Amino acid sequence: MTASRARPGRLCAVDTSTALGSVALYEGERLVAEDARRVSNAHGESLLPMIAALFATVGWTAADVGRWCVGIGPGSFTGVRIGVATVKGIVLGTGAELVGVSSLEALAATALQTSTKLGEAATAAPRAAPPGETASRAPAPIVAAIDAIRGELYLQVVAGSERSEPACLPPGAIEAWLEAIAPARVAPEIVLVGEAAAKIPALAGRTSTRLTADEHALPHARGVALVGRGSPPVAADALEPAYVRAPEITTPRAS
To answer: Which of 64, 103, 142, 211 is the most buried (most CB within 10 A)?
Structure first.
């Protein structure tokens, strides 16, 4: 591995888990430059040119970056593989730190940082406690949603520092899944994030805020950076995509 001459405060975040490919450069917590575009070719032709163009704009090279954060899915199988393979290759060549971030956590992190409505929900007055429970001031859980094939959704609940395991479910199964993780009697307010959240049916016993457009529509490199900045790095050969379910096309088994 090449020894890194990177500046520790410089970070590059990448996400290609959906049709939106994005790259964001940070100096410490300051956003230096970013680019995002929807593509139809799973990012194979656009990702490296996007990274190179951003570096040229700010006068950086890949070797100047101390930490790379990449969205590992779930989402598009091909898109995730391209993003992970690209960033792993750069890290192996530069010796920088590497962090993998769930695309669902990235989506939730962007919403938590930018949404006024979400901030108000997170600081709402303490709920009235059911008999036998103590009143609390818990943030409204966030349900991040990304489209999967066959009409299903990739989903993850983010509640404060707690994270559920990602799931892949049809819309009709979401209410029961959510009730098992964050019961309505405990979490009567919920925030649904992502353009796919428009497919989630009304949830009995809950008040929901839906953030489905603009910067809340799809995972973005900014969200990857928000999560990855404080996460422990991993070895490049240990980082794998998080598919949640098996790809449609797999290697045939021997007879």
So the answer is: 103
